[in-house]
Amino acid sequence: MVIYRERLTVPVAWWLLGGLFAFSAMIAVGWYRGLFWGVATGAAAAAIASAIFATASIRITVNAGELAVGRARIELSYLSDAIPLDKHAASHRAGPGADARAFLVIRPYIAGAVEITLDDPDDPVPYWLISTRHPGQLASALSAAISARGGLH
Questions:
Q1: Paired sense of beta strands 72-75 and 79-85, if any
Q2: pTM above threshold 0.90
Q3: How far apart are CA 151 and CA 153, in angstroms?
Q4: How deeply is 143 buried, as exposed, middle or buried, from its count of CB atoms within 10 A (0-12, 13-18, 19+)?
Q5: Res. 150: pLDDT tops 70
C-alpha cells in the first residue's frame, strides 16, 4: 500500500536550455565543418543532455513498511521523525548546518526538503535530507506511517 509517491524531474527550463545548447553546437560545428557534422554534433549533444536529465530523475515512495528514495531504502522502524523544511532551512541543512555523516538526496532546482531523523544505534547516519516539492505532505505521510508502525524498533 503506497502512502506517498513523488517523482522528482528536472524543470522544463532545463530541457529548453539543453535544446538551445544542442542547437548552438549544431550551428557552430556546422558552420565550421559542414552540415553533416553540425547535425551529428547537435544530435549527440541533445542525446547526452536528455540522458543526463533522465538519469537525474528520482522517485520517492512511502509505503506501510519502508521509505524508498531512488535505489536507497530504509524500513520505517528505523525512523523517528520527519520535519518539513522550507527553502532557507533546507539550504542551511544541506550547507553550513549539515552533518557530514548525513545521507543527502538534494536537487538544486527544488527548494523544499524533509529532514528524516534516524533512530538506529548501529547506523552512523543521523538523518536523511531529501528534496521534495511537497515537504509538508511527505513529512505528514512519513510521520503517520512511523506512528502506525509503532515508531522505534
A1: unpaired
A2: no
A3: 7
A4: middle
A5: no
